[in-house]
Write the C-alpha cells for this entry.
Amino acid sequence: MREIGVSKVKTHLSALLDEVTRGETIVITRGGRPVAWLTPPEAPDRRSANAAAATLRDLRKRVGWATTEEILQMRGQGRR
C-alpha cells in the first residue's frame, strides 16, 4: 500500500490507475491524513452468481418461458 498526496494524484491519475489495475492499493492523503483509497475492484463472487442463476431457474420452472415483452411487463408491475 502506498500513500500519495492529492496534488500528485491530479497529475498522475492515469499512471496510478495502471498500478491499481495491477493490484496495488493507493491511499490518497490531504495534509498527511488519508482521505480516500484507490483499490482494485473485487472479483465477482462465484457463490452469489450461482445463487442468482438458481433463483432464475426456479422462477422459470414456476412461470415458464417468457418473452422479453412479458419480462418487461412483469418488471413494470413491481413498480406500481
In short: The mean pLDDT is 88. The CA atoms of residues 45 and 51 lie 10 Å apart. The longest helix spans residues 46-63.
